[in-house]
């Protein structure tokens, strides 16, 4: 027997032994699930990569077959009971983020990428004030000014001239300009760009297409994340994803740190997130360009994608379901009698159908649609009545909660009235588009404000029709974030007469 043959046989025996251990003796062997998933990553690779982002949806079928707790890899458990969501993602949870998974984003020292719960609390406490409801109300004029610019361009360049607008880009523009001004005191100016296009967000979306490859082949993610910017631009001329967005944030932060720079609040006319960060970290070793830039990527990307998608989902369903759009318009006329009237955020929050419409838009846009893996502490944890040993990775996602038929009957139907029935307030707990607990989305209050203002102004000002849109809703796949398949949402519009 040759040396090479002996090595191959040894490797084969090792792999077979490993698979046998995982299937029969591993601490999670007692939990049901597909056999291949229990022993090999090939099962997830097939649904993630070969089937293009279908694993999250396939998990629903697995739960129907195996029950509420399913083993989906040798060390991963997926759960379906909605109550379990708030056991995993709660305040003061002993479970921590899965380092290997969140390392894929190359944002390890930001509040988003920080694994330690204690370190996260320290970093998050600095940012919380900037995103409190009080701060959002104080900065309402800033948000309103961005919405003003959006509706003015829609009227001047698109309404009544037969020119369709990509509302995906338009909503992206208003959200990214709001969050960049909110963060740095300087807007990215995407609302002024031709067709509302943003190179940084287009680059972000392109990189998101590769996320599932990075998930299963993390070395590629590390190579991409640590690539010099000039090389990334050379290899990916259409956009270098997070690196491009990080480069934009670096430029903004370098300006803020420059001794010659105007004082950010004085220049912007309002306190900025990064001015507060700079004040909170007087030690130069803590306020490094690298840390601040990665925090900037976290804020800008999270503050754009989720809100953009929720706006698109709500728009499509309001136009495909006339009874929804008509009822929404009737209610908006109560606080905005004229097509050019503007209602305050407080007035809009008092409108029950608009609020229900927004909740349903968030429910079917999901926020992060993919997995949120957490690691069980060394002493183990009991979740959904089952004990999991230390080191187990437990996973849930918004999709499995938002399509629980006991909570949301006919869950794939867009029905705002489900939020208006008696005891509907109890459903709020299970609207987890922004997740829950201490790791809940930082910009949630800003997102709600943008949804109120954009939906109200756009639907009150314009009559809209979908342009060459096929199928109900928006077709998405799961690349952790919802990733659109097919044409982006486009509309024709004209200014309402009354």
From TrEMBL:
The lineage of its organism: Eukaryota, Fungi, Dikarya, Ascomycota, Pezizomycotina. Its cofactor is heme. Heme binds at residue 441. InterPro entries: Cyt_P450 (IPR001128), Cyt_P450_CS (IPR017972), Cyt_P450_E_grp-I (IPR002401), Cyt_P450_sf (IPR036396), Cytochrome_P450_monoxygenase (IPR050121). PANTHER family: CYTOCHROME P450, P450, PUTATIVE (EUROFUNG)-RELATED. This is Cytochrome P450. Keywords: Heme, Iron, Metal-binding, Monooxygenase, Oxidoreductase. SUPFAM superfamilies: Cytochrome P450. It comes from Morchella conica CCBAS932. Transmembrane segments: none annotated. GO terms for molecular function: heme binding; iron ion binding; monooxygenase activity; oxidoreductase activity, acting on paired donors, with incorporation or reduction of molecular oxygen. Coiled coil: none annotated. Belongs to the cytochrome P450 family.
